[in-house]
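Problem: given the chain below (135 residues), write out its structure.
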Amino acid sequence: MSKAAEIVTCNETADAFQKVYYEKLDKQRHGTHGLVNLYSPEATMTWNGNVAKGRASIAELLGTLPMSTCHIHSVDAQPINEKAFNNKAIMVAITGNIRYAGIPEKEFAQTFILQKTDSAIMKISYDCFRFLNEF
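Solution.
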């Protein structure tokens, strides 16, 4: 596959991923089919400086957040050299606005590393969420 075709495939994967992710964040954050199942068992999430490692800790952190509504502005993705993770991986960068119940809407940036698992499914191995314009 050419590099250009690989980038197109990455962006198609990222677009499909973000639709599922933010739908689950806004409406299915908990439960057996919830958001946490998109993460690999060893994933790390950093949410505005708060670090959670592993699905249980990520579920706990997500459970502390009020209900949300997200509006996505941009999605970009790039392939990561397979040697970096010993498997196929892509970096996904997203910007948008999020409104939590009772809190004014805020701009955010979120970066994911999606990694192919043994079963050829892409899972989140790293997630970094940050409000913008907070300082």
